[in-house]
Amino acid sequence: MASILAVDDSASMRQMVTFTLKGAGYDVTEAKDGMEALQIAKSNSYNLVITDINMPNMDGITLTKELRALPAYKFTPILTLTTESSADKKMAGKQAGATGWIVKPFNPDQLLATVKKVLG
Amino acid sequence: MSIDMEQFHQTFFEESFEGLDIMENELLNLDVGNADNESINTIFRSAHSIKGGSGTFGFTAIAEFTHVAETLLDEMRDGTRQVTQEAVDILLKSVDVMRDMLGVYKDGGDMDEENNNAVQKELEDLLGVEGASASDEGSNDSANETTAGGWQISFRPHIEMLRTGNDPVRMMHALGELGKIEVVVNISELPSFADLNPEDSFLSWEITLTGDISKDDIVEVFDWVEDECDLDIQPIVNESENVAEAPQAAASDTLATEKAEKDPAAKKATAKKGGSETASIRVGIDKVDEIINLVGELVITQAMLGQVGGEISEDEKHDESRMEKLLEGLAQLERNTREIQESVMRIRMLPISFVFSRVPRLVHDLSSKLNKKVNLVTLGEGTELDKTVMEKIGDPMVHLVRNALDHGIETPEQRLEAGKDETGTLTLNAYHKGGNIVIELSDDGAGINKERVLNKARSNGLVGENEELSDDAINDLIFHPGLSTAEALSDVSGRGVGMDVVRKNIKSLGGSVRVDSTEGKGAVFTIQLPLTLAILDGQLVKVGNETFVVPLVSIIESIQVKSDNLNGIAGKADLYKLRDEYIPIIRADHIFNMHGGDSTLDNRLMVVVEGDGHKAGIIVDDLLAQQQVVIKSLETNYQRVDGISGATILGDGTVALILDISGMIDMYKEKGTPEPTTPVTPPQGNDSDIADEAA
Question: What is the ipTM of this complex?
Fold first, then answer.
């Protein structure tokens, strides 16, 4: 089954994302910020990375750039979690190499639909 | 798939309240005019998370309100808005509103709409917008077009599209789900094999999609790549329908790049802090309490075994090697039990900063309300104490801080007149001392005006006209109910209720509070609290046939009474000359109305104790072991008994009452040592009908 790395500094969002994805049969690893995610990503491999943008230590944009610089993550889909008010953030994510975004607030169904879109 | 979102609410509330605390703290520490970028970022992130979470979990009122505050913070973060005191104050008010709203969502109740709207209005006024709404994008798309025939799509990815992880194959699949799809691939751009970079994209596609499909559905498939490809979507039936489309796409293209360029500067400072946080897990308090109770039982079992072991070793001397092993095992059990207990207790321990962190805001608000200048110093924030004690000490602390600012620290004018710095200092300090935590709250204000306190007490009849009191005793009067010397009653400290409640609350935690004051120089309030409410180190004593537990922390020494040092006062009470001071003698058997016992005092054992700053000697018949006892509430299992703070179960299964030293001294003061009337015997029972107290 596809493995997903979910990155968010908010515990409740992490819980929700993880619970939803695990419920759909995905293998989910959590990280609480970009720094932690990068460490985890380096020693494992994932089919998809879902990351929040605003996080302490390392934000989602920087994480995306760092991941794209790793050979193993050159083409791995990376989705950013973003709020509708920050259109510039969507594009900043894309500029950094993100595949796409999920607009907050989202519900579990929307999350699954989007994940399905990149994982097939 | 339906998922019960409520299961995440608890976590959301916890982290959001934490986030608000962080926001408040950072806002209070913000250096207005020269704000630290990372602080603003931290505040922004907290607001952002709360907004995201509340939107996701359906708490729309918070999401909408927070959106406005977030917009303001975003501008500060971008540097397009100055950090002014006004903005900080409004943001602090917003934090309060968000906290209220969260509270309402969590515990029910009504929103204070009027106040919420007023604060939101202030935010919006500051932002210079009217009725900001949470959605400001995405709705301006052209009307949803649908054609019966289908669409002709020309999709030409830019060379670098694959590098964002977007795979054209997935898009084809997605389109295929919308209707019947025919794809023609254009390989004309494909370079020779030698020049081919496999990471680049050279192909383009002409796609014919037939069926009753809305254009929005197609656009959505290409949503993420609209700036990484040339996309042309034309209805098959009527080719002229879609002329306006291309310019719009181009416009959004340039807009996007422009924004993306200015962004990196905005979030540069995000990555510096970190590393210092300790990893933590959230565990429900009930689970921890259950473990604590179990460990408590373990302690009791261990005590029982220890006792049995001790008895056997006396009886059967013959099998010494086996006996030794048993004793060794028991000793090990004792050590292990104690270690487990200590580490489990530690789970409940939190740094006092949880309480101290409420103070800066309080000082900020109060000092501006009272027009006083106050500098707050906190020390020993890392000192740990039990969560329950922490929760209960919050309110008394707040009251003492209010009191210090209202009555203690003077106005800048008064201070200058008295030759002091116009800014007063309030110091909070916490440290461990023995099995206690000591919290000191000191100010360099006016101190307690003893004359006024004494006059007030005399006029209230608390102190007789000609009665003289020591300085300490006068200072202690401020804890008496109904004594307030504030010149003008204010809404800060309120009327004369308060200090007595402070003392009562602290006492109910098994602690004490006292005040030292120097007129003109300031006052120090010292609170002493047990580290935990669940266990205590006790000295077992025998009075008559009953075993009592005296908290070890309150014992100063134990001595044998010498008749030379006895002093009777007119048959009312006995005093004992202990070195150079006289202490009252309390006869436990009288206080608790126990019959029998020796009435002479000569050569009896006396435990000298201290409670609330008063010393006393308690006459006992025997001193037994010192041991750690697990406190069981008497109130929940039996009823409140004056002079008794709780009960415990001893190794042999009997119940022993734990003496409340301060309470006993109070009882002694009230009634002297009367003759026994009706006897009170401790409740008889065993483990099973003593429900455990969740400390």
Answer: 0.86
